[in-house]
Amino acid sequence: MQRRKEWMLNSLGILFVLIFLFPVYWMIITAFKSQSEIFQSTPTFWPKDFQFTSFIDIFKDNVGQYFLNSFMIAGLATILVLVLAVPSAYGLARFKVKGKNPMILLFLVTQMLPATVILTPLFIVFNNLSLLNTYWGPVLTCATLGVPFSVLILRTFFLGIPKELEEAASIDGCGRFRTFIRVIVPISYPSIVVCAAISFFFSWGDLIFSMTFNRNQDLWPLTAGIYNAIGRYGIEWNDLMAFATVSVLPVIVIFVILQKQLVKGLVSGSIK
């Protein structure tokens, strides 16, 4: 009976995975199809004749620059989020800070606000600081939204770390900062990886901030390039799907490489 239950749960899990992955599969195989095969009356689940002209076309169309821009924006935003969120979360978890509860509540409120609410105020601020048409506009905006989320996640984890570890490090001669760097950060590595991955994925998928703060298309990320391609290519779905495939590949690669750390960080965070 137990084995039958496990078999049914495993089968159900595999079914759900296939359902969620099917759009990704369809996107990839469409990129390798010809226009005539895409629009034929009977859909094909595997390309009859693999063609790579779609990928050749998009790489001729400045996709390399879009790719570099996405990496710059996502990478800088992720680094900024970690530099600010990790020590902030540790401070809120360990020290008696005046107004700590209202501050945490404010962090929660920021997660409920739609991105469009902050566009106009930030546009005015960035314009006054001459940050429009630079990488720093979308980078700072993505970091602004990513820091509160990461602080909330990491603070919960830091609260579960026994204070005896810090006391032992203090007895061994470590100061507060050295204890944080040598003891707390290594222990928290899985949760930090989770926050870094979520911040990177969020920044990688940014469209509205880059298009609002950067009118120079040479600074646009891949998502903006796809948006451009929709109007430019029209019904050339193989080119559009090739663009989408290239944009999603780094996310898949990062997730595959860091899957153990991501799962460990999510599980340890829930246990804490």
UniProtKB/TrEMBL annotation:
Belongs to the binding-protein-dependent transport system permease family. MalFG subfamily. Keywords: Cell membrane, Membrane, Sugar transport, Transmembrane, Transmembrane helix, Transport. This is Multiple sugar transport system permease protein. It is a multi-pass membrane protein. PROSITE patterns: ABC_TM1 (PS50928). GO terms for cellular component: plasma membrane. Its main location: membrane. The keyword Membrane applies. GO terms for biological process: transmembrane transport. Residues 67-258 form the ABC transmembrane type-1 domain. The chain crosses the membrane at residues 12-32, 71-92, 104-129, 135-158, 179-204, 240-258. It comes from the Bacteria. It is found in: Cell membrane. The keyword Transport applies.
